[in-house]
């Protein structure tokens, strides 16, 4: 009796497994035969500390897929895997995508995950398009990784110029997430530019470190308060950053907190509450009230249909652009042969995305030279101005 | 460093230390009675935070109902874990129970990720508690003043229960030798369940305080506090509640003072806790308050 039960359970479980697969494939574009589809892999953090960021990008990628479901006369199927906000998992996630025979890969929110996956991508000789991973190391020395966003040397300079020219800051403190490549990289470019602008080696009064997942920042913030800087640059993961700002305000710090593109998630406002009001950060150029082209207007309309109450994050628009960019390259290559797609991506000139028009540089980066400055106001991210380097 | 900054650091240290102390007491209680390091304790703490989050935001309970409800639910969770994961292994080697505890820890983390999603949630804000008051030039949140009081009160109640009540006497008997205790007519299952209930209830109180102060809730958030409070319990002498509170304060204060005096190495504060653990184990394995136990043959 027990044996029969065990066998029955096994059968049930395996049926369940296949049922799961079936419904997933169906939701991703029907049950077409393998030859008729082109698979595009997506690896993003969907659980863990960076989940909110990954989800925003996947929204954009999915909408892009709905609006442009075909290339080379074949259906495009998205295969989305979770990198669990973990660098080791990111490499595994990409390997899983490659095993499933994807034509190209999109991802990821968080430069650290992209860098960790870079080696696998390079060895497998398959193209990848970065969404909002801004760290230099993502594409450097890797001919197979491209990206549609600007890079941190630019973003760090933007915020240093903003602090110096717009806020009139003469001294600054830096709070960086040491275990996050993005945060450390951005902080160091900010530091170099700020010192160059002020002409004062001691204008950075304090550099404080914390680790991903930390909750108590009272110690480092007390140190910063004692140094009394004009501005505090705190790039990092959105939840930790929100807590840094919150605890800073509770300690009586009045200097403004400024940051980078990762702050633009709902969780930043949810965790930070009233204390993050007035926080300013640089992000990618995308304003839902001023679309750059027709394509952008169509995307905004489509997004509002799916998520009526949500403001569109810049990273969602980048998710969209990375998908369109991939499709464009495959179309120009005329096949999904990795070498041909790589060549097409590298030769991209004047690509018109919804986050701006760009060429691909020798490193595989988008040569974008405009950033948006956004501010938290009444619990919303408000587009403040565009900012460019003179 | 000026005096004002030093006092600000001091108050930060006390407030962090008292949170560690609350959670460390739960660790130490279970260890003192069962000789089991309950690695799921940090995750019970995490679940408690979700319980209070949902009772306030989803069921709209006022705080004076939500807080007791959270404590009760968490105590119940502790008892269920004990009954399902530890009781069947009572006569198995200690390592089996330890592995079972690690299993429970992973189960709770993944369950929380599955049920509540991996995205962080924010604890409902108690504006009165999170607002700051000025003591001279030091700004302290009200919750940070309350936490040490709660910690010491909890410790006093716990010591009373252990030393003056019948249940406490039974607990002490079980911790000495549970086979003999059983022969003497003590219902050891009930006593052990009560131990887990009390330990988990303390984790729940710690979780509420933590939530009010730090706001963020996510499924993996129990891991680091869990490990650190385990270290605090070891520093104080695992098995001894007074030692656990002492260890919690020492660890919290040590972490903050490390940041205060060696600001270049702030990224290493987690490492400080683990180095402290290794040092204690090397120099004084029984901790500050721990008694030397003679191994039974």
Summarize the structure in words.
The complex is a heterodimer of chains A (390) and B (297). Chain A has helices at residues 2-27, 51-67, 87-99, 111-124, 152-166, 181-198, 218-227, 238-250, 266-272, 294-306, 314-333, 338-346, and strands at 37-44, 70-71, 74-82, 104-106, 128-130, 145-147, 172-177, 204-210, 231-233, 257-259, 280-283, 351-353, 356-358, 370-377, 380-388. Chain A is of the alpha/beta class and 390 residues long. Chain A has two domains: 34-150 and 292-359, 3-Layer(aba) Sandwich (Rossmann fold), CATH 3.40.50.2300; 153-283 and 372-388, Response regulator (Rossmann fold), CATH 3.40.50. In chain A, the strands form three sheets. Chain A has a seven-stranded mixed beta sheet, sandwiched between helices. Chain A has a six-stranded mixed beta sheet with strand order 2-3-1-4-5-6, with helices on both faces. A two-stranded antiparallel sheet of chain A has the order 12-13. In chain A, helix 2 packs across helix 11, helix 3 runs parallel beside helix 4 (111-124) and helix 5 (152-166) crosses helix 6. The N and C termini of chain A lie far apart (80 Å). Residues 15-32 of chain A have low confidence and may be disordered. Chain B is mostly helical and 297 residues long. Chain B is 73% helix and 4% strand. Chain B contains twelve helices and four strands. Chain B is globular, with a radius of gyration of 19 Å. Chain B starts with a helix and ends in a 14-residue tail after the last helix. The A-B interface holds A 46-49, 51-52, 55, 84-85, 178-179, 206, 208-211, 213-216, 218-220, 222-223, 225-226, 239, 242-243, 246, 250-252, 267, 270-271, 273 and B 1-2, 5, 8-9, 12, 15-16, 113, 117-122, 125, 130, 132, 139, 141, 210, 214-216, 218, 220-221, 224-225, 255-256, 258-260, 263, 266-267, 269-270.
């Amino acid at each position: 009796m027990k044996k029969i039960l065990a066998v029955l359970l096994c059968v049930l479980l395996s049926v369940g497994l296949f049922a799961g697969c079936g419904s997933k494939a169906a939701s991703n574009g029907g049950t077409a035969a393998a030859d008729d589809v082109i698979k595009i892999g997506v690896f993003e953090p969907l659980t863990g500390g960076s989940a909110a960021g990954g989800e925003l990008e996947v929204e954009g990628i999915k909408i892009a897929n709905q609006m442009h479901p075909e290339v080379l006369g074949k259906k495009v199927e998205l295969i989305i895997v979770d990198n669990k906000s973990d660098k080791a998992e990111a490499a595994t996630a990409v390997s899983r995508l490659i095993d499933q025979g994807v034509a190209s890969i999109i991802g990821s929110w968080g430069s650290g995950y992209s860098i960790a996956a870079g080696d696998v991508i390079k060895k497998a000789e398959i193209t990848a398009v970065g969404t909002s991973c801004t760290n230099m190391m993502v594409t450097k020395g890797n001919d197979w990784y491209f990206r549609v966003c600007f890079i941190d040397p630019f973003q760090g300079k933007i915020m240093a110029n903003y602090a110096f020219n717009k806020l009139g800051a003469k001294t600054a403190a830096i709070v960086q997430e040491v275990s996050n490549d993005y945060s450390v990289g951005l902080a160091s470019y900010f530091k170099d530019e700020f010192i160059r602008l002020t002409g004062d080696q001691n204008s950075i009064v304090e550099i404080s470190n914390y680790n991903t997942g930390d909750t108590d920042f009272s110690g480092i913030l007390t140190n910063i308060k004692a140094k009394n800087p004009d501005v505090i640059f705190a790039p990092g993961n959105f939840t930790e950053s929100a807590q840094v700002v919150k605890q800073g305000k509770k300690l009586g710090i009045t200097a403004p907190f400024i940051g980078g593109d990762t702050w633009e998630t709902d969780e930043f406002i949810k965790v930070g509450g009233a204390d993050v009001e007035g926080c300013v950060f640089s992000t990618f150029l995308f304003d839902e009230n001023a679309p750059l082209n027709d394509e952008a207007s169509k995307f905004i309309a489509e997004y509002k249909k799916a998520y009526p109450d949500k403001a569109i994050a810049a990273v969602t628009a980048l998710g969209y652009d990375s998908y369109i960019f991939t499709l464009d390259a495959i179309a120009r290559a005329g096949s999904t042969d990795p070498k041909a797609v790589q060549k097409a991506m590298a030769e991209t000139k004047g690509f018109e995305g919804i986050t701006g028009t760009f060429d691909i540089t020798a490193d595989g980066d988008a040569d974008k030279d405009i950033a948006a400055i956004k501010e938290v106001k009444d619990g919303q991210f408000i587009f403040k101005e565009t900012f460019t380097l003179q | 460093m000026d005096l004002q900054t030093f006092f600000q650091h001091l108050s930060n240290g006390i407030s962090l230390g008292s949170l560690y102390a609350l959670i460390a007491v739960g660790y130490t209680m279970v260890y003192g009675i069962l000789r089991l390091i309950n690695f799921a304790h940090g995750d019970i703490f995490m679940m408690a935070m979700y319980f209070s989050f949902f009772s306030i935001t989803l069921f709209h309970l006022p705080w004076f109902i939500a807080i007791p409800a959270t404590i009760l639910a968490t105590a119940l969770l502790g008892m269920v874990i004990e009954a399902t994961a530890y009781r069947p292994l009572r006569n198995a080697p200690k390592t089996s129970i330890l592995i079972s505890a690690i299993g429970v820890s992973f189960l709770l983390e993944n369950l929380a990720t599955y049920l509540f999603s991996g995205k962080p949630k924010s604890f409902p804000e108690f504006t009165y508690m999170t607002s700051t008051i000025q003591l001279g030039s030091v700004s302290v949140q009200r919750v940070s003043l309350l936490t040490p009081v709660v910690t010491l009160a909890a410790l006093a109640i716990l010591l009373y229960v252990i030393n003056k009540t019948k249940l406490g006497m039974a607990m002490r008997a079980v911790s000495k030798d549970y086979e003999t205790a059983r022969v003497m007519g003590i219902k050891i299952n009930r006593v052990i369940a009560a131990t887990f209930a009390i330990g988990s209830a303390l984790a729940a109180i710690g979780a509420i305080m933590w939530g009010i102060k730090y706001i963020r809730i996510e499924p993996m958030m129990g891991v680091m506090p869990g490990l650190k409070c385990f270290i605090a319990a070891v520093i104080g002498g695992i098995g001894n509640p007074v030692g656990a509170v002492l260890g919690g304060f020492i660890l919290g204060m040590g972490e903050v003072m490390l940041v205060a005096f060696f600001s270049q190495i702030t990224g290493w504060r987690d490492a400080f806790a683990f180095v402290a653990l290794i040092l204690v184990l090397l120099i004084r394995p029984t901790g500050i308050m721990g008694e030397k136990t003679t191994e039974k043959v």
